[in-house]
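Onboarding guide, step 5: your first structure request.
Type a short instruction followed by the sequence, for example:

Predict the 3D structure of this protein.
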Amino acid sequence: MANPRAIVLRAAGTNCDKESEYALALAGFQAERVHVFRVMEDPALLDKYQLLMVPGGFSYGDDVAAGKILANQIIHRLSGPLNEFVAGGKLILGVCNGFQVLLKSGLLPWGRADAGTANRDATLAWNDCGTFVDRWVRLRADSDKCVFLEKGESLELPIAHGEGKFVPRDDAVLERIRGAGQVVVRYHGDNPNGSVDDVAGICDPTGRVFGLMPHPERFVDVTQHPTWTRGGVDRPHGLLLFKRAFEYFN
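The system replies with structure tokens like these:
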């Protein structure tokens, strides 16, 4: 597929949709931003796309909990179409608030939007410091399952979140996720929010639904790195994720 299409799902409060659209286009996708209301009115719109991205921001102001209202819209209005989207071999990426949405809709960790499983086996809680954290972090890719990253890849990406602490329901859930190779990226050297097992991002069992707290769309050019003028970076690490997704279809 020479030019796969990507939809960036936005809602009130989303603020990373334009950067996400640009990053996807830079990787080769035909990308466009679409409001969730348009998709709820006509779920068949999803048939046109091969990748769906839920970007970062503060959807609906995070008034109930981070990502919760958008997740409820997905559960009650779009669960069937999105479950078909996943079953059709397509990709879903959720970044920061988008990761929160995927967990609270049930699309992570098990790959199925469902009110019965949403927010049951894992969630993203308040950072241990109790405040919003905005800085760069180092990451290590630890899974060979995920479409978006190769195992062993080292990355630097920015974070910007208040509720980014990954918390599984219990040790059994964590062991299940680990054993299935679903822990895709871990914080390396410094855990900024207290995430259990240093988890920064996970995928579903297929490796095609991926959520992470750091922002890859904010590092698609070397000049976006704080040390680029001092030769501190050789490539835009965030662009790797989008290029790997594009290569999946080609």
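Each response can be followed by summary notes, for example: The helical segments are 17-27, 36-41, 68-87, 97-105, 107-110, 171-179, 237-248.
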